[in-house]
Amino acid sequence: MAKTALITGASRGIGAAIARRLAKDGFQIAVNCLDERNRDEQGLAVAEECRALGVQAECFIADVSSHEQCRQMVEAVKAQFGSLDALVNNAGITADGLMVRMKEDQYDKVIAVNQKSVFNMMKFAGALMMRQRSGRIVNISSVAGVFGNAGQVNYSASKAAIIGMTKTAAKELGPRGITVNAVAPGFIKSDMTDVLSDELKQKILAQISLGTFGEIEDVANAAAFLCSDQARYITGQVLVVNGGLMM
Ligand code: NAP
């Protein structure tokens, strides 16, 4: 029976690239979209691209910061595809600003979408995978969570927390044959980084050993490896994909 992968925030950017890459690897794909608009404008096209690669693919609407919506989504994926074999927690946002000026809701929103979502999804998908006695979980962190980044106290807190949660979940779920790892991208070309000023982009570029920004496919390849059989003995690890930005 074909395996099933659920990717959160898969309507565009890195999430969409992971969906396409896992489809290429033969997974049936559950494309998570935030809402109906997001599904109709972008998610359906991603699911269609996956189907063109010869696998089943459907969109599932859920705001991953909602505990209840995550529970319902995992249930719906199981009902649609019969199993859930790989979960990639990719959905994320930024709301940058210097710490001393940051509004409380600016902090809370980023923590809810980037961090609590990972708890929500690992809890419900993890319970299902424990019953299956197998599974792969990949959480998308960031170099900001490993090294910190001025102007991103909310974002770096959420991404550092994801690393701690990855290691805890790896310990809890390992005995049931489930691996849990994180990928920490550096600067990847996407809508998220497109908004940064050219001046800042040049500053970052100067620090990248390989001399170029990453592509969304670079992150997708790392996530796909961690979802594959080749990674069966790797768990609780952080795979940094940053072209040598930080070492
Ligand atoms: P992106 O282009 O902004 O895409 C983010 C995706 O997350 C979108 O599909 C978005 O949906 C979805 N999303 C946002 N809030 C959501 C919610 N509450 N529920 C469900 N989906 C939600 O960002 P990206 O660059 O692809 O980043 C993907 C992940 O990689 C994020 O976790 C990000 O923090 C991480 N990352 C990115 C970089 C980088 O350089 N790009 C570096 C390190 C880490 P909508 O289309 O509806 O907004």
Tell me about this structure:
The chain has 247 residues and is an alpha/beta fold. Helices cover 50% and strands 15% of the residues. It has helices at 13-24, 36-51, 67-81, 104-132, 143-147, 153-173, 191-194, 198-206, 216-227, and strands at 4-7, 28-33, 57-61, 86-89, 135-140, 178-185, 238-241. Helix 4 (104-132) runs parallel beside helix 6. The model has no long low-confidence stretch (mean pLDDT 97). Strand 2, helix 2 (36-51) and strand 3 (57-61) form a beta-alpha-beta unit. It has a seven-stranded parallel sheet, with helices on both faces. It starts with a strand and ends in a 6-residue tail after the last strand. The protein is built from nine helices and seven strands, in the order βαβαβαβαβααβαααβ. NADP nicotinamide-adenine-dinucleotide phosphate is lined by residues 8-9, 11-15, 32, 34, 38, 63-65, 90-93, 113, 140, 142, 185, 187-188, 190-193.
